[in-house]
Write a structure and sequence with these properties.
Elements: H1 3-12, H2 17-34, H3 41-48, H4 52-59, H5 62-73, H6 87-95, H7 100-119, H8 121-149, H9 162-177, H10 183-197
Helix pairs in contact: 2-3, 2-5, 5-8, 6-10, 7-8, 9-10
């Protein structure tokens, strides 16, 4: 490891996990209050009683900080611990990691960030790295286990679209039904749409 890398790592390590979680909560609160474009590192520093230099040293900029804050707020950092023995069980377990209140808050937050994500290349890049790619990796692990168990043929064309189906259902719930996504809605959607598309019978069919 180079000397500069050692120094950078040492600086980053000064923030404890508890302090990091506190900073992320403050960032999300500010996002909900003012939106991404009006959020500033100065405001984060003031809200968290931090120095702006510390924030930039730890996260590099607003886009990275916001993306990591949103990722940190999502329950369960990985699907590695989700292995119920069936695809239906795994998809249900992933859905149940968030309660209805958390889903409503996350849905509102993502609606507020949607325009900013596509208008800010740095934010889009950070979201892909810290949210989109990890979530796609989660789905791939779950689906690969289903293939390995023989539940789903490896050449099923719907496999590539499972993330689109799940994320689409979450996002479209408010737009089409004017209601927030809920556990009951998403569990029913998995049984009625996702599993049939993969050729997996659910107890309801």
């Amino acid at each position: 490891m180079s000397g500069m890398t050692e120094i950078a790592t040492a600086r980053r390590s000064r923030i404890t996990p508890e302090r990091e979680a506190e900073l992320y909560r403050a960032v999300l609160d500010l996002l909900r209050e003012v939106g991404y474009d009006a959020l500033t590192m100065d405001a984060v520093a003031t809200r968290t009683r931090s120095s702006k230099a510390t924030l930039y040293r730890q996260w590099g900029g607003k886009a990275e900080l916001v993306a990591k804050a949103v990722r940190h707020d999502k329950p369960g950092a990985s699907a590695d611990g989700v292995d119920t023995g069936s695809l239906r069980g795994d998809l249900h377990a992933l859905t149940l990691r968030s309660d209805d209140c958390e889903m409503e808050q996350n849905s509102a937050l993502m609606r507020g960030l949607a325009m900013a994500i596509h208008a800010n290349p740095d934010l889009l890049k950070a979201f892909k790295e810290h949210l989109v790619e990890p979530e796609m990796a989660e789905f791939r692990r779950v689906l690969q286990r289903a293939i390995d168990r023989g539940e789903v043929p490896a050449d099923n064309p719907a496999l590539d679209y499972v993330p689109h189906m799940m994320i689409g259902a979450f996002a479209a719930r408010t737009m089409l039904d004017e209601q927030p996504p809920t556990q009951a809605f998403l569990l029913a959607y998995i049984d009625a749409v996702v599993l049939p598309a993969l050729g997996v019978r659910s107890p309801t069919t």
